[in-house]
Amino acid sequence: MSKWTLEFEENEVEPLVAVLDHGAKCNGFQYDNDIINIILEKTKRTIKNEKYIKHHVFLILANSGSKKYDEISEKDDLRLNLNLAVYRQRSLRSPFQKILEELNSQNKISVKECDNLVTVSDCISLIRSKK
Amino acid sequence: MKKLFLIFLIFSTPIFCENNFFKNITLRQSFQSKNDKAEPASFTFTNPKDGESSFLINTALGINLFPYNENLTFSPFIEYHRNTLIDKEQFTYSGGAFFEWVAIKITGKEIKWVPILIASAKYNNDRKKDIESFMGNIYVAILNPLSNINLGKVASLEFYPYFGIENENRMKTENQSDKGNIYRFFLRLNLVLNPFNNVKSMMGKIQISFDYQYRYDFSTFLKDLSKKHNYFTADLNYQLFQSNKLSAVVGLEYVNGEDPTQGFEKQSYYALLFKIKL
Hints:
The complex is a heterodimer of chains A (131) and B (278). Chain A is mainly alpha-helical and 131 residues long.
């Protein structure tokens, strides 16, 4: 038996799901109880969670920092671009913890983890790693 | 020193149980500042061709016992300060507990003024002057609209004032007459400039900071010594490495004045330092 591992970049997953979905509908395949169906469902759930995390992190940062929701980018430095120095970064802990609770995660975010965040991307990664 | 380490371990036992011990450890220069402006631990070593080698170590290790509360910090800590770069060598170590409380919960961007209460109590051993003392302090730092301002897109500025009271109770000294209590008024102004924010490759890499501390002994048994103590440091730091766990910096530091809480006598020197913060 040979084992195949396929790896996709984050931005490739969504088009792949669309293609598989479209293909299934066109060819009349039945995916019920099929491994592909499981993969599709899981992938869709992951994409939903990823979007949920990113959207809510941006909302929280727009509420606390100096940039509006649409102006924030993942590369932004929390301190230098969003003016989130001095305890404001630390105060992100509670709203980030709420995101985890919404995702039914039991993990906790510590103050030190928030102190050590540098960029917006770090915020997303932190929550992603705890979900 | 062994006793201090034992106390440190006893205090930190609950954190061992949560398997978070290393995550909540902080390595910094001292526990005099509020948490977010803690200076990194600093080290330097010189080995001249003709002459004795000398070194400087300013380091403190602590662990936060309330890692999931953003408004409250309680950290048992140990500190080690040694400087053989200057004529009057310094060697102190200490251990105690650090407490910090953010008085107003910060939510959103509307809150501009927040008092932050900082207190610490420690046992201090000055090995050079042979003084053992108990030290306590209560400071208030004010988070204010100048705490983080942008100077256009080029630079940003951070400003933090502190004020408070310090107590030093000298328990063991060479001369019996040197024992007693000293109470000090404390004022500190800390200014940090982050330049080159408009240059992507340099953003956050360079930091210039100025720190001025003024102490006045308003109650002291030492009649012959000056009651006023000034301590000024200026740093030019370049960030070598930054991750979400560790930052490493190389910096040029200028120090002038005295910090009696660290057992520092009047001093003035420049040093190139390697600094680490966990």
